[in-house]
Design brief:
CATH architecture: 3-Layer(aba) Sandwich
Bound molecules: nicotinamide-adenine-dinucleotide
Number of helices: 11
Distance between the termini: 33 Å
CATH topology: Rossmann fold
Shape: globular
Helix content: 40-55%
Length: 258
């Protein structure tokens, strides 16, 4: 039996993936749909197009335009998943501001820019978790997976707002794991290393960082791509991960040891 058939042995889950129409999020949407899960792609743009492409492969997917910073959009996203799939079992908080940020010393970050990064990367995660909470608790096998980063552990310079926002995501994950455990909802985070996502490739940030800096310090000396992250998400969403909660799983080729 192949690995994919084995993973399909469990009952499929209904999953919302924020920022699921491009980059790492699209890789997540494709992989979970391929495994038989019902996927609602939620994004600022391109959500329906991404869902249509997934359906064209014979997989179950819907799309919705949603801004994670809006409480109304977060509620609509959850409502749509419940209406389309009959419930909601998993939320993947992947939407985030990173690839559009300009690297700069912290003294040059304006308070408006700081607040905007916090708004998307922390308030957005909070909004979506809150909107999904009742449905995830009802599921009986709810899964919440937050996409953090290894930057809070490494503390790279010139992106202090981003580093702080992802540190908050790790802390929030732990707090929610305790609060949601009564209803068997697991809450975990994935911490990717620097990944050649669509946004990274478009922004050219990978060239500014340089080949050596991208892979230096990793056990596995190569660039990370979105496909490197999908197995960790599939596991955390699966029934097999029912006793794993409050954890942050670094998927970065062995760059940090948590
Ligand atoms: N690429 C990396 O090196 C890296 C490393 C660690 C963590 N991450 C995290 O992984 C996640 C995805 O990163 P990526 O590199 O694929 O980024 P990306 O810029 O390629 O894609 C981000 C997606 O999120 C969506 N999005 C942004 N703001 C949104 C909002 N307010 N509401 C809804 N959707 C919104 C965008 O439209 C886009 O589809 C982010 O949370 C990022 O911080 C990325």
């Amino acid at each position: 039996m192949s690995v994919q058939q084995d993973e399909l042995a469990e009952t499929p889950k209904s999953v919302v993936i924020t920022g699921g129409a491009s980059g790492i999020g699209l890789a997540f949407s494709r992989h979970l749909a391929k495994l038989g899960h019902q996927v609602l792609v939620a994004d600022l743009a391109g959500a329906e197009e991404a869902a249509r492409d997934l359906r064209a492969q014979g997989w179950q997917a819907e799309g919705i335009l949603a801004d994670v910073t809006s409480e109304a959009d977060a509620a609509a996203m959850v409502g749509r998943a419940e209406q389309a799939f009959g419930g909601l079992d998993a939320l993947v908080n992947n939407a985030g501001l990173f690839t559009t940020l300009t690297l700069k010393p912290f003294e040059q970050i304006s308070s408006a820019e700081w607040m905007r990064v916090m708004e998307v990367n922390t308030l957005g995660v909070f909004n979506c978790a809150k909107a999904a909470s009742a449905a995830l608790r009802r599921s009986g096998r709810g899964r919440l997976v937050n996409i953090a980063s290894t930057v809070p552990m490494k503390g790279p310079p010139n992106m202090a707002h981003y580093v702080a926002s992802k540190g908050a995501v790790v802390a929030f994950t732990r707090a929610l794991a305790r609060e949601m455990s009564r209803d068997k909802v697991t809450v975990n985070a994935i911490a990717p290393g620097f990944t050649l996502s669509d946004g990274v490739l478009q922004s050219g940030i990978h060239e500014r960082i340089g080949d050596n800096a991208r892979t230096a310090g990793r056990c596995l000396q190569r660039d990370q791509v979105p496909a490197d992250l999908v197995g960790a998400l599939a596991f955390l969403v699966s029934d097999a991960a029912a006793f794993v909660t409050g954890q942050t799983l670094a998927v970065d080729g062995g760059g940090v040891f948590l």
